[in-house]
Write a structure and sequence with these properties.
Blueprint lengths: L3 E4 L3 H11 L5 E4 L14 E2 L4 E2 H14 L3 E4 L2 E9 L2 E8 L14 H5 L3 E3 L8 E3 L1 E2 L11 E2 L9 H5 L12 E7 L1 E4 L3 E3 L16 E3 H8 L20 E8 L15 H15 L4 E6 L9 H10 L3 E4 L5 E4 L2 E7 L6 E4 L3 E6 L1 E3 L1 H10 L26 E3 L9 H22 L1
Parallel strand pairs: 1-2, 1-13, 2-5, 13-24, 15-22, 16-17, 16-22, 17-18
Antiparallel strand pairs: 3-4, 6-7, 7-12, 8-9, 10-11, 14-23, 19-20, 20-21
Bound molecules: flavin-adenine dinucleotide.
Length: about 425
């Protein structure tokens, strides 16, 4: 009973899995989506180095599936956990993929022939996918999944698949595993700006979130990396970012800072400005938080590229004859600024995901006042939860950037390895 169970296959879960398995401990990595990778796989570049996000994540994703000591369960969730440190018993439900995972080679012929097009959640609503699909070209495992809800059973995919890998019928499978320790890495969800109707998110197509912008900028995204206003398809000449949407706002029960939004807005404005020096970019903020190594220098680079920073948040985005209008007071000099941007990017913050809450309830671990997983001691024991043998990594415990997720994942892995070694 020396195995370790990791729930969530984002960058934190991936790092924890690799670190644990590299220490000779068998890992069960459970991911509810058809591919591991989490949010990082949706990003274009990462601050402050502008590394291509998938170029640095993808090799790790592949290392995970190839690792002899890691068993990956995609389309899966943990439905029950009993026992205690050293001897947990977990029930995993593997949801139907309608594909024989051992046979499918990911060739994509079935995707090509499928006539059904639906909204692609991976592209944050900015693109489409087929009813039989891969979430994205670098999905791991590199196999397709059939979306039973939208499939019209036209039969074309069965005909084209020379390997007979596509199943007409499929049912959930239940797997029981034993583990000495558990690492919860279920991540975050993005704050939904629809809950602030004055911002007109979803009412006007040119009001988008930071994650949607990441997909637009991405060369493998729905517009092949060309930033287009969703309403007209035209390239925007004037883009405004509104910071702290869903963060640092007591009125909506979100008092905390989401950590990454300042840097993400700076990153994306640098990327746009470098490609399109003529585009006007303005970031409206409460204050700019660039606390990490190289982050302040990155901010200064944006300023030197001509990105405008205005201290003051517009409280609404209005729709009129002149298009979108935002009004804000520059709190540094009292000037009232009125602007008609072609595209408004809401820097929507991180919030605890509903699934993290459900997992915490199932595992019996405490959550904090903001709904993230509580840790035993923020200063000295930041990966231990209230239950011995259960650890937490990444943004399940608080908003974090990728370097912090990776560091905390390593710490959680070390604790889990230590527990596993004690029982072996
Ligand atoms: C617009 C934007 C831009 C950003 N840009 C950067 C950047 O440039 N640099 C940077 O450092 N950070 C950036 N970040 C932050 C970055 O996205 C996070 O730090 C990182 O992705 C968090 O990783 P994670 O593994 O904690 O969570 P996630 O990526 O959310 O992964 C969690 C995984 O757990 C899975 N899961 C959830 N619940 C369950 C369950 N019940 N069972 C099984 N699996 C489950 C999910 O499907 C997911 O795969 C950005 C964030 C945003 C919003």
């Amino acid at each position: 009973m020396t195995d370790v169970l990791i729930i969530g296959g984002g960058v934190a879960g991936i790092e924890a899995a690799l670190k644990t398995a590299d220490n000779g401990i068998h890992v069960h990595l459970v991911e509810r989506e058809p591919s591991i990778g989490g949010r990082m796989s949706q990003l274009d570049k990462t601050f402050p180095t502008n590394d291509c996000s998938m170029c640095i994540l993808s090799p790790k994703m592949v290392d995970v599936v190839r690792h002899p000591l890691i068993t990956v369960y995609t389309c899966s969730e943990v439905t029950d956990v009993t026992g205690e440190k050293g001897n947990f018993i977990a029930t995993i439900r593997k949801n139907p993929r309608y594909i024989d995972e051992d046979i499918c080679n990911g060739c994509g012929d079935c995707i090509e022939i499928c006539p059904v097009e639906v909204y692609n959640r991976y592209d944050a609503g900015m693109g489409i996918r087929k009813a039989i699909y891969k979430p994205h070209p670098q999905a791991v495992p590199d196999i397709v999944v059939k979306d039973e809800e939208h499939c019209i059973e036209c039969g074309l995919c069965y005909d084209v698949c020379g390997l007979n890998a596509i199943k007409k019928e499929d049912t959930p499978r239940v797997i029981t595993i034993h583990a000495s320790a558990i690492i919860l890495a279920t991540g975050y969800q993005v704050f939904n700006p629809e809950t602030r109707p004055a911002l007109n998110y979803k009412t006007h197509p040119d009001v988008i979130t930071g994650i949607e912008l990441e997909r637009l900028i991405n060369a493998s995204g729905p517009t092949k990396g060309i930033i287009k206003c969703p309403s007209s398809g035209k390239e925007p000449e004037n883009i405004a970012f509104i910071q702290c949407v869903g963060s640092r706002n007591m009125a909506i029960g979100r008092p905390y800072c989401s950590c990454v939004c300042c840097m993400a807005a700076i990153k994306n404005s640098i990327l746009i400005r470098e490609k399109h020096p003529e585009t006007s970019l303005t970031i409206f903020y409460i204050d700019i938080r660039t606390y990490g190594k190289g982050y302040e220098e990155y901010y200064n680079r944006a300023i030197s590229l001509g990105v405008k920073f205005i201290r003051g948040l517009p409280s609404e985005v209005t729709i009129g004859r002149e298009g979108l209008t935002i009004v804000a007071e520059n709190t540094e000099n009292g000037e009232i600024i009125t602007m008609h941007p072609d595209l408004v990017v809401l820097s929507a913050g991180m919030e605890p995901s509903g699934t993290t809450f459900r997992m915490a309830e199932m595992l019996g671990i405490d959550i904090d006042l903001n709904g993230f997983v509580a840790v035993k001691n923020e200063a000295l024991d930041p990966v231990a939860t209230s239950i011995p043998g259960i650890y937490v990594a990444g943004t399940a415990t608080a908003p974090k950037d990728i370097p912090d997720c990776v560091a905390f994942a390593g710490a959680a892995a070390l604790r889990a390895v230590t527990d596993a070694r004690k029982v072996s």
